[in-house]
Specification:
By secondary structure, the protein is of the alpha+beta class. Helices cover 38% and strands 20% of the residues. The protein contains 13 helices and 14 strands. It has a 5-stranded antiparallel sheet. A 4-stranded antiparallel sheet has the order 6-7-8-9. Helix 9 packs parallel to helix 13. 41% of the residues are buried.
């Protein structure tokens, strides 16, 4: 991709970035970008959109002429170094960097993880790769791929922008402590970590189909209390409540018609957080919710996504669990039982924290912060009803605030 000579533009708002990424204007510009690549008269559509509050908007675009398809990454975030082979575009309001997937400028390992021959070479042990599928991709941040070999063995490839060795060491520390984290198959290669599949099924699946509470709260406390003390030696990452302002801004950007209401919610939450006791600093998971917990017959058999594991607070892990639980019924009507489960978990969590000197108002305010962080994520241009989902999440924020008092 050739980079045109363009002048710097003034900073533009994240609201303007969202509008531009979704515009026909940008799709038309990208169609011109791929024209020299042999895709004349290509149709370009937005495949995925990500808004990182305070940093900017990024997206993945598909360009197709009916017989061939290319994928492009794009970001309005300011990059310290201009990546080779990328294009820098200026629309007069701001600048966007565009690259041909998988040449993500901050994920150099993405090419390795998305190239079948290289995956076979690095992790195949002589086996033929039968399937290589992208499960998640956040431009400039991370990606997760599933590699399935002809003998049925499955590996999950996690592509990181940094700290791949630290994540590898965290997994080993948890395994040594008896925590069922997925086992790495070896050290990281070019920022890519390969893991075995966790045993059991995601708790989300049991929450949908179980006829009674699928995981006893005491097992949750036992697991979190068993996290190894070595996690206290790694850099701490902010909890959702620590970034209330950022996530509130993202929600206001996604739903400007609700900006005033969201502003009131932010103020109410900030007042509670200022006075609520958080408890002791302890080893924490940092992203503890039903998708990252695997279970078998009511026993926790897998703990995933420990990237944020480190020094933290039990109340934040429990609030993360409640916050994600609260939005499930808005995602799928088959989660109808979760409404009752949420109440039972909330009471159990409040009781346990009370015995540790942490009041319920802080728990519920922090759960509200988690839900607020998910409002902007409801934005999905493939779903014409995404605003309904976002409004439902705002109502969940208000419900947790009512519980906080």
């Amino acid at each position: 991709m050739n980079s045109p000579v363009l002048q710097d533009a003034d900073a533009w708002t994240e609201r303007e970035q969202l509008d531009f990424f979704e515009s026909e204007e940008f799709a038309g510009i990208l169609a011109e970008v791929v024209r020299p690549m042999g895709l004349e008269h290509a149709q370009v559509y937005l495949a995925d959109l990500h808004h990182r509050p305070g940093a900017g908007v990024s997206g993945v675009f598909a360009a197709s002429n009916g017989t061939a398809t290319l994928y492009l990454g794009a970001t309005a975030e300011k990059l310290e170094k201009f990546p080779e082979g990328a294009v820098r575009l200026d629309n007069g309001r701001g600048a966007v960097v565009v690259w041909l997937h998988p040449a993500d400028p901050l994920l150099p390992g993405l090419r390795l993880a998305t190239t079948p021959g290289l995956v076979e070479e690095k992790w195949g042990d002589g086996r033929v790769l039968e399937e290589l599928r992208t499960l998640a991709y956040r431009p400039l941040r991370r990606a997760v791929l599933l590699a399935r070999f002809v003998d049925g063995d499955q590996l999950f490839l996690k592509v990181l922008r940094k700290d791949s060795q630290l994540l590898h060491d965290k997994h080993l520390a948890l395994l040594q402590a008896g925590i069922p984290a997925p086992a790495p198959v070896g050290p990281p290669i070019d920022g890519v970590l390969a893991f075995r599949r966790a045993e059991g099924v995601p708790l989300a699946e049991d929450l949908m189909h179980a006829k009674d509470l699928p995981l006893d709260p005491q097992r949750i406390f036992g697991l979190l209390d068993s996290l190894p003390q070595t996690l206290m030696d790694v850099p701490a990452r902010p909890a959702w409540s620590d970034r209330l302002g950022w996530y509130g801004h993202a929600a206001q950007t996604a739903m400007p018609e609700q900006a005033e209401n969201i502003g009131v919610l932010i103020q109410r939450l900030a007042r509670i957080l200022e006075t609520s006791r958080r408890g002791e600093l302890v080893p924490s998971h940092g992203d503890f919710y039903e998708a990252n917990i695997f279970v078998t017959d009511g026993t926790i058999t897998g703990l995933l996504d420990i990237d944020s594991a480190g020094p933290g607070y039990l109340v934040d892990d429990l609030a993360c669990f409640l916050g994600h639980l609260a939005v499930l019924p808005g995602l799928d009507p088959r989660y109808e039982r979760v409404v009752g489960y949420l109440e039972r978990y909330a009471k159990a969590f409040e009781s346990e924290l009370g015995q540790r000197g942490v009041s319920g108002d802080g728990l519920y305010a922090r759960a509200a912060c988690v839900v607020l962080s998910l409002v902007a994520g409801a934005r999905d241009e493939s779903n014409p009803n995404w605003r309904v989902v976002a409004l439902d999440r705002l109502r969940r924020v208000e419900q947790f605030l009512d519980l906080a008092g």
